[in-house]
Amino acid sequence: MSLQLEEYIPGTIWICRYPxxxxxxxxxxxxxxxxxxxxxxxxxxxxxxxxQIKNVTRR
Length: 59
What we know:
Layout lengths: L3 E6 L3 E10 L2 E11 L5 E4 L6 H7 L2
Antiparallel strand pairs: 1-2, 2-3, 3-4
């Protein structure tokens, strides 16, 4: 599965929507990735990290 990383605020905030299955119910979830002022990344509701997401973290 290839996840789509959407740049919400250039260079600062990215959103990645991903599917979630729980007890037979399908739903969508969203990871928010925020680059802090010191360059570190904060992940809220993290999903599986693929190569596209890794590349953003290396900037």
